[in-house]
Every structure is written in structure tokens, then in C-alpha cells.
Description:
By secondary structure, the chain is α+β, with helices and mostly antiparallel strands. It has eight helices and 15 strands.
Amino acid sequence: MSDSTDLYELLGVGREASPSEIKSAYRKAALKSHPDKFPEEEREEASANFQNIQQAYEILSDDDKRHLYDTHGMGAFNGSGEPGMNGGVDVDDILAQMFGMGGMGGMGGMPGMGGMGGMPPRPRQSPDEEQKYEISLEDLYKGKTVKFASTKNVICSHCKGRGGKEKATAKQCSTCQGQGLREILTQRGAFLTKSTVVCSTCSGDGQFYATKDKCKKCKGKKTNEEKKMLEIYIPRGAKDGDRIVLEGEADQVPGQEPGDIIFQLEEEEHPVFTRAGADLKATIDITLAESLTGFSRVVIKHLDGRGIELQHPNPNSKNKSPTLSPGQILKVPGEGMPIKRSDEKGDLYLIVNVKFPGAEWKPSPAVLEKLKEMLPKPDPRIEAEPVDEVEYEAKKDLEEFGSKDPAGGDAWEDDEEEGGAQCTTQ
């Protein structure tokens, strides 16, 4: 759209038209000029006209953009209808006129106010593709190879990434003047800020092919979708947050090195083991008899399916006591997680949980007497006078604890005797 284009005339309304009149006019104009209503040879021109009508409505339906257009014309906008620089209009002049600054020469150090020469260079590599990959603790312990199908963009083999036919010539993009990048002004309240963006007209190429000159295979996109089988290896001992990189397997972009596909590992919660670095922690259940007399059996199934057997008391330990207390911790060296790039492993910490007999255990009085004789007596015995034998309830919890606070319990008075002490708490 040229700077001389009159947006009001394009929509067929006057400059004093209300928002509803502009909206109604846009609907009629868009319906009348839709490219599908024109024969094939006229569609390219119709499409351009249809885009101009859409751009006119985008500007005139926005109060801020309409005010900017009424004040400075199309020169204050870029090719997409956003505030920016286009043609011969100088952005600094617009700012000076709007804010009465008499020229912007003194603002050379203002952030984001550099000219086209200050635009960032095009990236030498296409963007990386990052995604999460959830993995079980078992797979992190043993290592895992994962194969998957990837769909990505690859350089078109027919046009070699040109986007056009072999003898066709691309046209320079008038929106960005062949730069591939453009500067836009964005209004934030009373201020305008300038930033650099990729030109949406030519997708950053600075040029484009006419419809009839586009490559038949990629339709001018320069790339085609392709499926490829990929494989990643997750090493033994990898941990949450580790990144697995497939170099050069991201989408291909003409003129750039392909980026990488990056998987970030997310360790799933395990029902038995807890991990801390290269160490593992788990709880083992033993019976009351085992806690007092010892045992020799498999106490837990490891992440690779092996049974871990313990003999207690440990015949190699100086401490021959068979007793294990609830919460006691047993350390098994070398049975933790593998340490990457080495043959070493962390340690396994086992927390003892003593399971006391349930209601189904009903020993005879004779057995109970024998237990009393065998087990240690309460020590020390509590001496007190007098002694009250009380009733009690078993298997209760602490939900009712503190519920017997009497009403009005925030104050008390002692007036049993005349003139006695009185106290009120606040």
C-alpha cells in the first residue's frame, strides 16, 4: 500500500465516520473484493486489494492507530498496519512532532532508537527445539535407548531452497526494502517505542516470488515436511534436568545451519525409592520378632529387578546385637544410582519400619507370661503416692486434642474468700 492511499476512500466512508460505520463499510468492501470471486488471472491483483482493505480496517478501527494516521498519514505505518517507518517518513520527526522535542538529535543514546544500520544480523543457525521427556527411575538406573519418528522441515530438493522456479527472478520486498527486517513503533500510553522485527511480508527473506514463479513442490516456502526416525540414548545415572541433544536435527532453514533438538529429562516420582544425587533411600518393613531376634532374607526389590538380601546381625560387624529400632537406618554401600562416566555407584539407605502384631495376633496367657519373663522390664519404675487405676480408650488419635477448652476460658476469677485475689487475662 502506497503512502498516498486514502484509507477512508478505500473503505468508502468519510473522515468523520463512526466506528460502526467503518465496520459496516469494511464488511461490504471485503465481501465485494474477496479473491475467490475473481477469475484465476485476476486473483493476484484482487488478493492485494483485499489485503489493503483489511489493513485499512485494522488502522481505522483502532483509536490510537486512526489518530496516528489522521496526523501523519500512511508514512507512520509499516507494511503490516503497525506503527513503524515506511517510505520517506522519519520516525524521529514523528516523535518530535508528537512530543514537541524539536528533533531527536540529542537522543542518540536512547535504548531501541538505532536506525536500520543497527539491526541485528540474521541468525546463523535455525532455532533449537526443546521439549520435556518424562522418564522413570528404573530407566535412569539402567539406561535407555528411545526411537521415535520426527516430522521436520527440510530444504526443498526441487528448488534447492530458492522457493522459485529455476529461471524465475525474485522481487525485492517493498515493505522492508529488501532488508528482511523492519522497525515498528508501538504506542504505550503517551510514549512510542521502536523495535526491530522480521518482515511479515517476505518472512525475513527481503524478496519473494510471484505466484506463477513459485516452486511447484514447496509452493515458495523453500522447505517441505519430512518424517525421519531418530534415536536418543539416555545414559545410566542420568538425572532430572539433564539435557540430551540431537545436533542438527531441528527444522532446516535456507542459508542457516540447522538447530538442535534438545530433550530435558523429567524424573518421575517413584513409589519406593527416593533419589538424592547418586544415593537412594527406601523404607523396609520388618516384624517385631525380626527387630528383636534378627533375620536373613530379601528386604527390597531393586530398580533393576534384583532382590537385596540382608543378614542381621551382620556377621562381619563387631556389633552382634540383633535388635533393630524403628527408624534406624541401614546403609548399603554401592547400591545407589550409577555415577555417569564411571563404574561407581552411590549408596542405598534403608529406613527400618517395625510392624507390630495386629488384632489377629492372639497369644495364649502362657505365651504372654513367657514374653514378660524374656523381655526387659520397665526401667526405671515410677514411684508415686497415691496411685489411681483409671479406665482408657485404645487406638485414638489427636483430632480431639485441645477441644475441651471451656467456654469463657480467657478469664478466671478467684473470689472464694472476701477480699481474695482476682485475675483476668487479656
